[in-house]
Amino acid sequence: SGVALLLVAHAWATRKLVYLPNLLAILAWLGQQRAARRWPGLYGVNEILHRAVILLGGVCLWAFVSRWVAQSVSGFYLTASWSVLALALLAGGILLRERMYRWLGLGVLAVSLGRVAIFEVWKLETNYRVLSFIALGLVLIVLGFIYNRYQEKIRQWL
Q1: How far is CA 88 from the centre of its chain?
Q2: Cα–Cα distance for residue pair 145/111, rounded to 1 Å
Q3: What is the mean pLDDT of residues 68-80?
Q4: Which H or E run includes 105?
Q5: Which helix (H) or strand (E) element contains residue 138?
Q6: In Å, what is the CA distance from 11 to each residue of 15, 24, 62, 103, 130?
Q7: What's the pLDDT band for 8 if we cut at 50, 70, 90?
Q8: Distance, CA of 92 to CA of 114 (rounded, Å)
Q9: What pLDDT shows up at residue 75?
Q10: CB-based contacts of 92: which residues, under 8 Å, 6+ apart?
């Protein structure tokens, strides 16, 4: 976990976050947290540290995706990638039964909704604006379906 943290911190300092080993380090970092959660007898880590590791790993993953998209393209692709990341985090939180991933997914989704409302409505061309709203709408429809289907379980988990 320390090596992954050092790699990501170095990438942030040198502004070279979009590098495949950095993505692997972030995923390894989150995987180590999952192993520590699964085997509490081997790893004596308290709940606050677990949540902090997930939060920091999620923020690093979000920054990685944002810079990767910003280097390649821009505009509505950034919001679409945030929406897909939010969906992946929410799905991962449901599958892993981890509340912090679900909260991260909701946070990323809220930021992408804010970006659509503040920036994309005014700056993008009509075609890209429509595609942006469609991508965001699809994510919201899928989340609504998941919520309606597993409403009682989600209430217990949140």
Answers
A1: 7
A2: 21
A3: 77
A4: helix 99-115
A5: helix 126-149
A6: 6, 13, 14, 26, 35
A7: low
A8: 23
A9: 64
A10: 98, 101, 105
Query: Measuring CA to CA, which residue among 69, 65, 144, 149 is closest to residue 108?
Result: 65
Closest CA to 146 of 104, 100, 88, 62: 88
Pair 106, 90: CB distance under 8 Å: yes
Phi, then psi, of 45 in degrees rounded to 5: -110, 135
pLDDT digits (tens, 9 = 90+) for 102-117: 889 889 988 888 887 7
Q: Using the predicted structure, report yes or no on whether residue 90 has a pLDDT greater than 70.
A: yes
Q: What is the DSSP letter of 97?
A: T
d(CA 118, CA 8): 30
Closest-CA residue to 146 (of 86, 82, 100):
86
Angstrom distance (rounded) from CA 16 to CA 127? 32
Measured in residues, the chain has a length of 158
For 115-157, what is each residue's pLDDT tens digit? 877 776 777 778 877 877 787 788 778 878 877 877 777 666 5
pLDDT at 9: 63
